[in-house]
Design brief:
Blueprint: E1 4-5, E2 13-16, E3 27-33, E4 39-46, E5 48-52, H1 54-59, E6 64-70, E7 75-79, E8 82-86, E9 91-95, E10 100-104, E11 107-116, E12 133-135, H2 140-156, H3 161-179, H4 186-208, H5 216-222, H6 227-235, H7 241-259, H8 265-271, H9 277-288
Antiparallel strand pairs: 1-2, 2-5, 3-4, 4-11, 5-10, 6-9, 6-11, 7-8, 7-10, 9-12
Helix pairs in contact: 2-3, 3-4
């Protein structure tokens, strides 16, 4: 058995789990530090226990909030004697002053995040309480939070520090929404949640824009919204959902035309979700200022 002590902002100890404790201990651990004092430990390997006891709490900053997201495995989280069954995509969070034991098998695959309490202090309804909870991935909030947290590491590595703090603030808002908001934070939280939902929908449009059946109505239905609510979300962009969808298709077509490896202009237009060649030509020229054929 091998102990591994993390000496970052949220120290944890990894120990071999299971009955066979004499064999080798294979684990892959990644440490990531981001802007604003945010940190993440990725644990991937054989069945193991992630321990954060009194010794680890003493070595780390207590004025923080941690969040564990199980990626591809199920597991158990023990918090102050309370055991929680966790499924892939679920997020468990708690105060860094709370002892925690995370386990799973036959192998573990989870990310453990730490967020400075300052990111949440003005959002939390019970800032002096013991913030421990679970956000299930099967709920609308859980799906949004789990997807956001899964993509956050790659995004934080690519954006400026100020933008990184904004993105982390959004994640903190999701946790605060689950925990209960202070009376004066509702407007801030709703704006953050709307921004998160908008990002999710834009990614959906980019991914599915080649489907000619994709419309604002089908997009709204796929995200559990009315068309009117969908349009309200897009008001902040200065574009309608229909316009965003059209531009996604035009950008996809432009990329294929620049590659000069994919069929005729008509083939490309239909492959990018257009059902009318004349409409494609007209919108392409209006958006880019030149005809599609000029790229060939």
């Amino acid at each position: 058995m091998r102990d591994m002590l993390m000496n970052g902002a949220i120290p944890i100890r990894l120990e071999r789990d299971g009955l066979d404790r004499d064999g080798g201990f294979i684990a892959h651990v990644e440490l990531h530090g981001f802007a604003g004092g945010v940190g993440m430990v990725r644990n991937l390997g054989q069945a193991a226990l992630g321990l954060r006891g009194a010794a680890e709490i003493a070595r780390g900053a207590p004025d923080c909030l941690w969040a564990i997201r199980y990626r591809r495995t199920s597991g158990r989280i023990a918090l102050n004697g309370r055991e929680i069954e966790v499924c892939p995509g679920d997020i468990v969070y708690g105060d860094c002053g709370v002892e925690v034991l995370a386990s799973g098998g036959p192998f573990v695959d989870f990310d453990q995040w730490v967020f400075p309490a300052d990111l949440l202090r003005d959002l939390l309804a019970r800032p002096e309480g013991d913030p421990v909870g679970i956000i299930r991935h099967t709920t609308p909030l859980g799906r949004l939070a789990s997807d956001y947290l899964a993509q956050l590491p790659a995004v934080l590595d690519r954006v400026p520090p100020d933008d990184a703090c904004v993105l982390v603030r959004h994640m903190a808002t999701l946790i605060a929404l689950d925990r209960g908001l202070s009376a004066d934070a509702g407007e801030v939280a709703q704006a953050s949640l709307a921004d998160l939902r908008l990002r999710e929908i834009v990614r959906y449009i980019d991914k599915h824009c080649a489907d000619p059946r994709l419309t604002p109505r089908s997009i709204a239905q796929a995200h559990g919204l009315s068309e009117r609510a969908l349009q309200r979300l897009f008001e902040r962009t200065g574009k309608s959902c229909a316009r965003m969808l059209l531009e996604a298709r035009l950008n996809a077509a432009q990329a294929l035309l620049r590659q000069r490896r994919t069929g005729t202009i008509a083939d490309i237009a239909f492959a990018c979700g257009f059902d009318s060649l004349s409409s494609f030509y007209r919108n392409f020229r209006a958006h880019f200022g030149h005809a599609p054929g000029d790229l060939l």
